[in-house]
Amino acid sequence: MRHEDITVRDMANKYIKIPILNDQYFVIFVSGKQNRVQKILKKFHYPDYDDPDVIGRFEKSQGITFLRDECHPVIAMPAPPLEPAEIATLAHEAVHGVGHIFEHIGERLDGEAFAHSIGAVVRTVLQQQAQQAGKK
User: How many CB atoms are closer than 10 A to CB 25?
Assistant: First the structure.
């Protein structure tokens, strides 16, 4: 399977949708300012997308994962991860997002499927960034 076959990038809203295990579960990655993050949270039906406390946590963080019961975690970072510390933050947030999905489906958080899913999030975000940088 080619990389393009597993990643959906919505150019209008500038987010990356990364399937986890199948097309029923996915993690969304978005980077940018508060208004972009709010737009993506609204698009994926987060009821508190405009709550000042929720957005305030994003503005004070290096990255944050928004979770809800319906299992489409949104990883938000103020800027695309380029430096080692930012990539580490992405990996950290991927653990929260993928862990939420695995808990929802009753899967263990210590196996190969979990580890590969974390890798898929980090790899996909970094590959998309590299592709975008090459187009500039």
Answer: 19
Average pLDDT over residues 61-69: 92
| Mean pLDDT score of the chain | 87
Pairing of strands 15-20, 8-10: antiparallel
Give the chain's end-to-end CA distance (angstroms, integer). Answer: 26
- How far is residue 26's CA from residue 16's CA, in Å, rounded to a whole number? 10
Say if CB 122 and CB 86 are below 8 A apart. Answer: no
Residue 115 confidence (pLDDT) above 90: yes
Question: How much is the pLDDT for 131?
Answer: 87
Task: Rounding to the nearest 10 degrees, give the CA dihedral for residues 108, 112, 118, 119.
Answer: 180
Integer Rg of the chain from CA: 14
The tokens for 115 are 């580890």
Q: ∠ CA(69), CA(126), CA(35), 5° rounding? A: 55
Q: What is the pTM of this model?
A: 0.87
Beta pairing partners, 15? 10
Report the C-alpha gap between 122 and 115 in whole angstroms.
Answer: 11
